[in-house]
Amino acid sequence: MTVSRPLLDGLLTALTENDTSGVLEWCESYVQFPHSDRSKRFRREMAPWLNEILESATDSDTREMVVMAPVGAGKTTMFEALACWIVGREHGASMFVLQSDTDASDWAETRLTRVLEECEPLAPYWPKSRHQKRKSAILFAHMPLFVNGANLNNLQSKSLRWCIGDEVWLWKAGLVEEFRRRTHDRWNSKRIFVGQAGEAGDQFSLAFEATTRKEFMFCCPACGLRQPWKWEAMKYKVSLTTSGETDWNALANSVHMECACGEVFEDKPEVRRALSSAGEYVTTAGGMNGRTGFHFPAMAVWWIPWATLVEEWVKATGEEKRGNLVPLRQFKQKRLAQPWEEIGTGAKDDEVLNTRGDYRQGLCPIANPWFLTLCGDPGQNQTYWSVAAHSREGEIYIFDYGECLAPEDLLEIAGRSWPCVEGADVSIQAGLVDSGDFTERIYDVCARGAGVLYPSKGSGGTFGTWAQTELKERPGMLLYTYIDRAAKVSLYIERIAMQKPPLLRFPIDSTEDFLRGHMGQRLVPSKTGKIKEWRKVAGDHYGDCSKLHLVAHWILAKNLA
């Protein structure tokens, strides 16, 4: 007998209208996990960080959810509980998307189907024909449930109410938007994207950033402050064995977490669980209407010992010192659930601001500087310049800067003197002027400033630092060519972002124009994708001047040694 759609809808309503339980209560009553070693039934106290996520998935206001969470936190168990709820209470064509068809098939066969079969309220809906129960789909009497891999073929052909994706950070570019389209603007549709963190700027990270973000936080019983689990709060002591190796047992025994108030939390299951059980989600940033994001790190997952995480961290940072960033990347993505941003790919705005020293523009801040340099970067309508004092230890203090109308005006600036914090006034010993543009004109300026100003030019090479050549067409004039990539890495990554010694400093009263001339510098993938290159930034003239001061130091340090 064929059941008509209106009759089937009436039957479904009759079956569910008397059940007013919420998703957590319903799952506790009906959802079982025959494969689980931790708990055979759904229990809300087992993984409290998942409770509000499930409630948000079933409310009427949220259209899209993004969950950025660590591995081993029960995300798959959440999927299984949600699948039972959808089939038993919500109804509507649904699709769970995993990384590949193989992953989807394995999960459906070994876990999902067994969980669905154990859920009592689903029994009336199970298909009678074995052909309607496949690894990739179960055609229930009232709705289809698809389980597929993340590929364009699977995400283009179906109209869905529920779209749920796992490990979205691994999806190929464009698939997130393709998946969104499957809901066809249904008023009651749901899109849920889940996974560990990927890379900053990828489609998963951008989806998360577009949400109203919520962070799972604990409350310190001593001071009452509700706060997120931060890695900086993890305290430990690294000690060595008599053979000089890391004493891992001693390290594990030293691990604990501290609140800013001084309260200490021991690395014990009952302590970790108590903090998680009292945890709550707190909104940390606004986003698009109807979109909610959830985040928590592995420290919030009470069954993961903090000592395990600390050991992984210590090993990862040790590998970082050897030039291997893979373990550190994996730790941040998988354990902290933080998008990976290539370390040392440029200088952030706040790092540029942190480069300011404690001296004012126009005053040489160090007594008896080793030498002073003037560097200029001619532009289309004006020439930018700056003056720096260099110490014997390699420190560079840029203490004056400005704009002049023409490159020829650099000659007047080269003849100036400046007051010094101590002792007599100081004056320029040498300088570099960028000759990439207006080349012959710059050569003329440097010829008039012989012995002080020299032409310079950046090279696109990838090896070395700088070279000195005599210009054939201008006998006696030296051209200094430098590797632009190496100079920018040294300036923006080492000196500004990482604040590595010897220090680079700007005046404390640096103007916005000067500071912005050093901002926005990032290494980005080249068109071929094989290497990273510095992206072009408009208005970076002052940054180019600072770069030339660094090159000048390389040259003078060698010549004066």
What does this structure look like?
The protein has 561 residues and is α/β, with parallel strands linked by helices. It folds into two domains: 20-335, P-loop containing nucleotide triphosphate hydrolases (Rossmann fold, 3-Layer(aba) Sandwich), CATH 3.40.50; 349-559, Nucleotidyltransferase, domain 5 (2-Layer Sandwich). Helix content is 32%, strand content 21%. It contains 18 helices and 25 strands. Strands 1, 2, 3, 4, 5, 6, 7, 8, 12 and 13 form a ten-stranded mixed sheet that branches. An eight-stranded mixed sheet has the order 21-22-20-19-14-15-16-23, with helices on both faces. The longest helix has 19 residues, at 541-559. The radius of gyration is 31 Å and the shape is elongated. The model is unreliable at 1-17 (pLDDT under 50).
Can you give me a brief rundown of this structure?
This protein has about 550 residues and is of the alpha/beta class. The chain contains 18 helices and 25 strands. The chain has two domains: about 325 residues, Rossmann fold (3-Layer(aba) Sandwich), CATH 3.40.50.300; about 210 residues, Nucleotidyltransferase, domain 5 (2-Layer Sandwich), CATH 3.30.420.
